[in-house]
Design goal:
three-stranded antiparallel sheet; about 45% helix; single chain; alpha+beta; hpI Integrase, Chain A; Double Stranded RNA Binding Domain
């Protein structure tokens, strides 16, 4: 085989000639493709091509990694693209610019971070991908991820941890939708794979709750415990108001009106994204007056141990468990709801309104403009009396 620049017919090279080429020079094949052998014996594929009227040379990779057949296929595609007015150089640069799945996921995480309700949700998005997805997909270009890759991630824990697996799948899909918007791919491999996954039980896992009488016992135990003042006040306020943990822990003084005895939670802090008014019983007001001495620079009613941060959800959960009560903090809403149903004559819609639940069908909700605030005030006073606070 000669190392001269003499033109040769298309597909002039053979795999054996490529392997045995040792003399420095250029060995031509077809479609402008040639094998360049350097003085040190290194071999590289190069293509001479005219792109939009300008002669260019494209590197197609080392002959140690790219076979003759692969080099020919790329060269043919490049030539077709150039003949149709495209730019193989630009296409190559764009392909190299495509992020890996991990890089894309972290970028999507930062983009969506301001829209999440709290830091916990933002952290869960990334931590679940770090745990289950990055080890298998992280280094793949986001354009290269296929359905089989997504299945390889989900299958090991799809039946064991179905809820976690569904969330991971949803988060993979979110990254893929962003990649589609970037023009890096046409499909979302996280969609339409239900048939390839085993069926799982969709039984809802309810939060552990105490009976309403035991709830009163738990409140008394917390008040008598050696826990920090902020923790004790936040827990008792949570039970008295039947509010969600995040709503209580992230409450700020600007939401509280002690004179009118009302706590007004803005829509962006509510699960249903609707503003919610909470009538404050006398014991709830007393707790808030005690909490005034705990105020921090951020205005949190129940500031956490870390400066500028609210009280941790784990702090409340840990306290309940340490006192020997097998219940989740969220479960005290269930305790309240059961008490209202079994021990009072308050209408269902009043109790549901206290929990900030939507009650009735769409027409019924559209017609009911009142939030039943005054009736709820009576009910929350009775609930406080039941708790013995």
């Amino acid at each position: 085989m000669s190392g001269s620049l003499t033109r040769r017919p298309e597909k002039a090279l053979t795999a054996l000639e490529v392997k045995s080429a040792v003399k420095q020079g250029k060995y031509f094949d077809g479609h402008g493709l040639y094998l360049r052998v350097d003085a040190n014996g290194s071999k590289f594929w190069v293509q001479r091509i005219v792109i939009r009227g300008k002669r260019s040379e494209l590197g197609l990779g080392s002959a140690a990694l790219v076979t003759l057949a692969e080099a020919r296929a790329v060269a043919l595609e490049n030539r077709k693209l150039a003949r149709s007015g495209g730019d193989p150089l630009q296409a190559k640069r764009e392909a190299q610019a495509v992020l890996t799945f991990e890089e894309a996921a972290r970028k999507v995480h930062e983009m969506h971070r301001p829209t999440w309700k709290n830091e916990k949700h933002a952290a869960q998005f990334l931590s679940s991908l770090e745990t289950y997805t990055f080890p298998k997909l992280g280094k793949l270009k986001v354009a290269e991820v296929g359905t089989a890759d997504v299945l390889a991630v989900l299958m090991p824990f799809w039946t064991e941890k179905p809820e976690t697996a569904r969330r991971v799948r949803q988060r993979i899909g979110t990254v893929m939708k962003w990649a589609i918007a970037q023009g890096w791919r046409q499909d979302n491999p996280a969609e339409n794979i239900e048939q390839a996954l085993p069926k799982t039980s969709k039984v809802q896992q309810h939060r552990k709750a105490l009976g309403y009488d035991e709830a009163a016992t738990c409140v008394a135990a917390v008040k008598a415990s050696g826990a920090g003042l902020t923790t004790k006040l936040a827990f008792e306020f949570l039970v008295l108001t039947a509010a969600r943990s995040g709503e209580v822990r992230e409450a700020v003084w600007s939401e509280i009106d002690l004179e009118r005895k009302v706590w007004e939670i803005p829509a962006d802090r509510m699960k249903m994204k609707r503003p919610h008014r909470v009538p404050l019983s006398a014991p709830a007001i007393a707790i808030l007056k005690q909490a005034q001495g705990l105020a921090d620079d951020e205005g949190y009613v129940f500031p956490g141990a870390k400066r500028g941060r609210p009280l941790s959800d784990m702090t409340l959960s840990k306290l309940v468990k340490e006192l020997g009560f097998d219940a989740d903090v969220h479960g005290f809403r269930t305790s309240f709801r059961t008490w209202a149903q079994e021990k009072t004559s308050y209408p269902r819609e009043v109790a549901e309104a206290a929990l900030a639940h939507l009650s009735g069908d769409a027409v019924e909700r559209a017609d009911a403009r009142s939030d039943l605030f005054e009736k709820r005030r009576e009910m929350m006073d009775d609930w406080a009396e039941h708790l013995g606070t």
